[in-house]
Amino acid sequence: MRFRATIENAPIFYRLIQAVEKLQKKCIMKFTETEMHVICNDDANEGGIQVWSVVKVDTMFTSYRIQSNANNAITLTLSTEALLSALRSSSSSASSSSVAAAIIPSYDADEVVMKLAKKNDQAVLSFEMYGMSRSGRRVRVAHDVRIDVMRPADSDKLHEPRCPDPEVHVLLPPLLKIRTIVERLRPLSDVLALRANNSGILQLSINTDTVKLETQWVKCGNPSMAKHEIAQNDENDDAEDILLNQPDPDKMFCVLVSIRSFLKFLSSHVVSATTILCLCHNHCAILYVYIGEIADAGGVLTYYIPTVIDGDE
């Protein structure tokens, strides 16, 4: 089993793991010949939220080499906090609490190599940073992250949640703006209602015994998501069947979610260029966070947030 790659886009990698770390302290990473997957599927997560992300290798890496007996795929589990710390060390923004920063308080890495290794009989994902200190000296900083390599049989059991066909897809406003609103709603309610229709209307609301608040956006846009639906629902014959069954464009569809879960999703604003919300009425919300514009996206984070039961709505 061999794996080695040069991280070409360390800032994007860092922001991706930064978003995931808000959700779960451990994650699953799967490397194949063409893709990197970052998965958070622990049922113990707040509100049952899951993340299944896919990033194209050429978006993130160069000099990418992988070899294994499992069709050249390697799946591992690791601490998101430790991985975030290693990626933070790859730039001059390294934390003052890190060992690297204590030895070399200021440097810029011009090459970051990530590889699979073994240290003292412990498998690690090793990060080697090569760069120049502010005083002009050439430096090398190493950072090891402990990992557990999953058996291929266990890796094969990993599957995204199966969901009904969404009734509506809507393009979200900038996530940072939504986050500002939801943070103000959080002290007032534990449950947030997400509503949308196929005429570009999006509503976020809370409804309790003491307060009822609603925020609405119009002209959000309703992109076609037929390709995603076909990928997740193999029983669908083709995209035409989906498009022919479009509901009444003015009918509102709703999913009630944990407001804390939704705030954790909104941490993905650090990587988002475009985000699409899909509602499976009274079942779940599916959110696609694209890395880059949709037409040439280098990857996508897919969030699954299940509905919650709330008698007030």
What are the SSEs and their pairings?
Blueprint: E1 2-7, H1 10-21, E2 26-31, E3 35-40, E4 50-56, H2 57-60, E5 61-67, E6 74-79, H3 80-88, H4 99-103, E7 107-119, E8 122-133, E9 138-149, H5 152-155, E10 168-171, H6 175-185, E11 191-196, E12 202-207, E13 212-217, H7 226-232, H8 239-244, E14 253-258, H9 259-266, E15 274-280, E16 284-291, E17 299-306
Antiparallel strand pairs: 1-5, 1-7, 2-3, 2-6, 3-4, 4-17, 6-9, 7-8, 8-9, 10-15, 11-12, 11-14, 12-13, 15-16, 16-17
Features:
elongated; alpha+beta; 9 helices; 313 residues; 13-stranded antiparallel beta sheet
Description:
The structure is a single chain. The protein has a 13-stranded antiparallel beta sheet with strand order 5-1-7-8-9-6-2-3-4-17-16-15-10. It has a four-stranded antiparallel beta sheet with strand order 13-12-11-14. The protein has helices at about 10-20, 55-60, 80-90, 100-105, 150-155, 175-185, 225-230, 240-245, 260-265; strands at about 1-5, 25-30, 35-40, 50-55, 60-65, 75-80, 105-120, 120-135, 140-150, 170, 190-195, 200-205, 210-215, 255-260, 275-280, 285-290, 300-305. The termini are far apart. By secondary structure, it is an alpha+beta fold.
> How would you describe the shape?
elongated
Number of helices: 9
Largest sheet: 13 strands, antiparallel
- End-to-end distance, in Å? 53 Å
Radius of gyration from CA coordinates = 21 Å
Number of strands: 17
Which structural category fits the helices and strands? alpha+beta
Percentage beta strand: 35-45%
Could you estimate the helical fraction of the residues in percent? Answer: 10-25%
Element string (H = helix, E = strand):
EHEEEHEEHHEEEHEHEEEHHEHEEE
Q: Provide the low-confidence segments as ranges.
A: 92-105, 227-237
Mean pLDDT across the residues is: 85
Strand order of the largest sheet: 5-1-7-8-9-6-2-3-4-17-16-15-10
